[in-house]
Design a protein that fits this description.
single chain, alpha/beta, five-stranded mixed sheet, 12 helices, 18 strands, elongated
């Protein structure tokens, strides 16, 4: 944390006010793309005199909302903001100028903005204008809040979360295809809250046919904001009777395909032609096209072949693995493909967190593949020679 001047709040007070700013920012999650979620509070003599959050793209930024609500009380006050104030003209004026004009004394910042058009420029303008700037207030929490957007800005593609719900022996459906329900109501409610906060949700054509999902956000207590629904339908062969085509929603349904010609589609359904990879939709190309639409976060919900493809191509940034206390002994496994020949080549979940949702466990982590060994272990080479020899 940067050193503060005379009269600066104690570290505990600074963290408390930044947590209030984080709570404000949370109100905009899932609603601001392609912009980040930002919260701000103005504090004068130890009391919050103004607060605000960025509600949607094109709307006033969090700092401007907080300044407007504080009015004249903003002069000489401290501003706490979860993200560095912008310093460029977009759909709204620069927040740095509004802060200077309001006479704010100090600005406490959680995260720096990695966007090349900002990235320190907002803080530099404030300092040149005589405003004291304090960085490093709850930076880890502020960075995590916008990790999807940071990834989008720095890589040019959406942050991909893969969600899998399986039994303890790795099955996502019985041998007859029954998959309702693997997990309990608490886990399903969690997923609906997650849909409410992501920009898009994706399934494969097999899941669309077998489960006929709506892919809408129905969190406890009321209807949420529906994400864009993306369906991998390489040959555009899905029947039009599916609920994905008949569901009324403000969010469109996108059909990712590789065909040259497209027949007429139902209202609210849009084709997205992608390059082909092995006769199927190239997932990397699809992610690029989603990014062009301003999609910063994508939730992949199934099925098994889709999950495997995303993992094998290194396109999963976060894995949510729900484990139900059940054993099937057979049925459909969510992990497919050939897999590595040696254990050293297995994917690892970094930053693993474990929580409980009702009777189910939720494992959260970032899949990382270690560097492949130059040669397979000697025992594995001998085994392959025996197999080839019959």
């Amino acid at each position: 944390m940067s050193r503060t001047g005379a009269g600066a709040p104690a570290a505990g007070a600074a963290a408390r006010f930044m947590r209030e700013a984080l709570a404000e920012a949370g109100l905009g999650l899932g609603r601001t793309s392609p912009n980040p979620a930002v919260g701000a509070v103005l504090v004068r003599r130890g009391r919050v005199v103004g607060r605000g959050h960025h509600a949607r793209a094109g709307a006033p930024h969090a700092e401007v909302v907080a300044l407007a609500r504080a009015g004249e009380r903003a002069r000489g006050a401290d501003l706490y903001t979860t993200l560095e104030p912008c310093d460029h003209w977009g759909k709204t004026p620069p927040c740095s100028q509004a802060i200077l004009q309001a006479g704010v004394r100090r600005v406490f910042v959680g995260s720096r903005d990695p966007n090349p058009v900002v990235n320190g420029r907002g803080l530099a303008r404030l300092r040149r204008g005589g405003v004291e700037v304090v960085e490093g207030i709850l930076t880890a929490e502020c960075d995590r809040l916008n990790r999807h957007w940071f990834h989008f800005i720095t890589t040019g593609r959406p942050f991909v979360t893969l969600k899998v719900a399986s039994t303890l022996d790795g099955r996502i459906a019985t041998r007859t295809g029954d998959s309702r329900w693997v997990t309990g109501p608490e886990a399903r409610a969690f997923v609906h809250r997650l849909r409410d906060r992501v920009d898009a949700v994706l399934v494969g054509s097999g899941t669309a046919r077998a489960d006929d999902p709506r892919l809408t956000a129905r969190p406890p207590g009321g209807r949420g904001r529906d994400p864009i629904r993306v369906v991998l339908d390489s040959r555009l062969s899905l029947p039009r009777r599916l609920r994905l085509f008949r569901q009324r929603s403000a969010a469109p349904t996108l059909l990712a395909h590789v065909r040259r010609a497209v027949s007429r589609l139902p209202p609210g359904v849009e084709p997205v032609r992608c390059t082909a990879r092995g006769g199927r939709v190239d997932l990397g190309d699809l992610l690029g096209k989603l990014a062009e639409r301003g999609v910063t976060s994508l939730l992949v919900e199934g099925g098994a072949a889709v999950a495997t493809s995303f993992l094998e191509q290194g396109l999963v940034d976060e894995l949510l693995l729900f484990l139900a206390p059940r054993l099937l002994g057979g049925g459909l496994s969510w992990a497919q493909g050939r897999g590595p020949e040696a254990m050293a080549g297995a994917l690892r979940l970094e930053g693993l967190e474990v929580s409980r949702l009702g009777e189910d466990l939720l494992l959260t982590g970032s899949p990382r593949r270690p560097a492949a060994p130059r040669t397979a272990p000697r025992t594995a080479r001998r085994r392959r020679r025996r197999e080839v020899g019959g």
